[in-house]
Amino acid sequence: MSSSKFEQSQGIIQHHVLWSMGAGAIPIPVLDSAAVIMVQLDMLKQLSRVYEVVYDESSGKHLISVIAGSTLTRLGASYIKTIPGIGTLLGGVSMVILSGASTYAIGKLFTNHFESGGNFFDFDLSWAQKKYEEEFEKGKEYASDLQKNDQEKEPNKGEIFVKLDKLVQLKKSGVISDEEFQSKKEDLLKRL
């Protein structure tokens, strides 16, 4: 394992965990989960570049859904947001941490797999699901720590997360290119 690749991968994971936490804070059920998956796919694309693995978005989507399937059920906290008042508060808090933890786990899992010479087409799914669950537990603490550090630095980051969500929507609708998306995303992430 190259220490340079490892350092790059850790930076990519951290940025995307933060971004996922912002997506998890979106107060609209289902949109938050969709935004988190978009963040995870972008992370996989960037990790693929670092490890010189051919990126395959459809395989990435499939692997995320198969590997994280049991956790997606836990992300049902998104639906708690539909309860007026308290539901938005409780759902948002748990969705933020769970979104970050899921992204952390996916990032760590794919980094380990790519470091061992793997690609999108040679996953041992039973190993991947077990490893994902282990990393997800670590990811909850990691996301919680990031959230605490974030709030200590600058308590009002909601605006940045809203802008990140809008940026995802612009990319998804084809209004901006991948290059513009990456550039704007990096500018916003630097402000976190």
Please explain how this structure is put together.
By secondary structure, the chain is mainly α. The protein is built from 9 helices and no strands. The protein is 78% helix and 0% strand. The radius of gyration is 16 Å and the shape is globular. The two termini are 29 Å apart.
Task: Write a concise keyword list for the protein shown above.
192 residues, mainly alpha
Overall geometry: globular
Number of strands: 0
Order of helices and strands: HHHHHHHHH
Question: What percent strand?
Answer: under 5%
Number of helices: 9
Distance between the termini: 29 Å
Spans of 5+ residues with little confidence (pLDDT < 50)?
Answer: 77-93
* Biggest sheet features: none
User: What is the radius of gyration computed over CA atoms, rounded to a whole number of angstroms?
Assistant: 16 Å
